[in-house]
Amino acid sequence: GSETATEQGQEEEAEDRLKEHMDNLLDKSAKTRQAALQSLRLALSSKTLSEFLLERRLMLTDSLEKCLKKGKGEEQALAGTVLTLLCLQMGSGPEGEEVFCSLKPLLVSVLTDSTASPSARQSCATALGMCCYIAAADLE
């Protein structure tokens, strides 16, 4: 009984940290946003969080969109990586497709922007390819 309570407490603590990181994506400071993106990248790559993300995918998608639009270099690269992981977590269902479709034009925009940093362009190319493979319903 106490093991289950401990696990549940750890899970709630981890979710609270994730919520905090998601809130930090909207911070004015680029360093704070980058730290939040790095923390989210680590969390999404180490644990399956589909239930948690399902409820928050729109908020997270909006935040990633802002990071891709307004961020520079490293922030855009991290946002692309987090987007790829989010698509992986959402899977090939309608939720994953929704995330991909809403950010696809922005990924293409960063990818084709010759003034964007090479790391940002590479990350957006990877995100575009992976998300397209996982979540695109339209075969083209």
UniProtKB/TrEMBL annotation:
Family affiliation: Belongs to the IFRD family.
Pfam families (alphabetical): IFRD
InterPro entries to which the protein is assigned, alphabetical: ARM-like (IPR011989), ARM-type_fold (IPR016024), IFRD (IPR039777), Interferon-rel_develop_reg_N (IPR007701)
Chain spans, region Disordered: 1-20
Superkingdom of the source species: Eukaryota
Name the UniProt record assigns to this protein: IFRD2 regulator
Sequence ranges assigned to domain Interferon-related developmental regulator N-terminal in this UniProt record: 5-139
Gene3D superfamilies per record: Leucine-rich Repeat Variant
Organism: Serilophus lunatus
